[in-house]
């Protein structure tokens, strides 16, 4: 349930016009940040715009999120984190990128700890984390 509340909290961030509704484009942009494709966003909008006004109210959004399984929400959050940690969108998180990303949230974590995390989770020994390695690492921390 906490994961669903986190996604619902994202609603206000994406409501650029602050009218309590998301346009189709705002829904697309929000879902894209969570790793969903354009077609998936359109399908989501079509399915959950219950009053068919072409926008999604916060109530419609909350109801839609309530139908998602917690593991789907967690996977979406992890995709979002990966995208944030990979600023050049290469699909690989370099040590410097992970250090910078971690520092944004917790300055108490030593840079050596980040190097250790990469070493422990770097399945192909390239000194970086790909998507699968990052997911494995993060799921072990949640």
TrEMBL record:
Alphabetical list of Pfam families matching this protein: EF-hand_7 (PF13499)
Gene3D superfamilies cross-referenced by the UniProt entry: EF-hand
Keywords of the record: Calcium, Repeat
Gene Ontology CC: myosin II complex
GO function terms (MF aspect): calcium ion binding
InterPro entries: CALM/Myosin/TropC-like, EF-hand-dom_pair, EF_Hand_1_Ca_BS, EF_hand_dom
Domain EF-hand, residue spans: 36-71, 73-108, 109-142
Protein name per Swiss-Prot or TrEMBL: EF-hand domain-containing protein
Species for this entry: Paragonimus heterotremus
């Amino acid at each position: 349930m906490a994961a669903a509340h986190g996604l619902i909290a994202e609603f206000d961030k994406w409501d650029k016009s602050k009218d309590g509704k998301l346009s189709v484009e705002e829904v697309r942009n929000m879902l894209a940040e969570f790793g969903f494709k354009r077609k998936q966003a359109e399908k989501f909008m079509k399915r959950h715009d219950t009053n068919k006004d072409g926008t999604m109210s916060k109530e419609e959004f909350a109801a839609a999120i309530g139908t998602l399984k917690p593991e789907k929400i967690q996977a979406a959050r992890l995709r979002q984190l990966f995208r944030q940690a990979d600023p050049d969108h290469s699909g690989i998180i370099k040590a410097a990128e992970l250090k910078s990303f971690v520092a944004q949230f917790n300055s108490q974590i030593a840079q050596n700890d980040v190097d250790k995390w990469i070493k422990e989770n770097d399945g192909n020994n390239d000194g970086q984390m790909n998507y699968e390695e990052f997911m494995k690492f993060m799921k072990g921390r949640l």
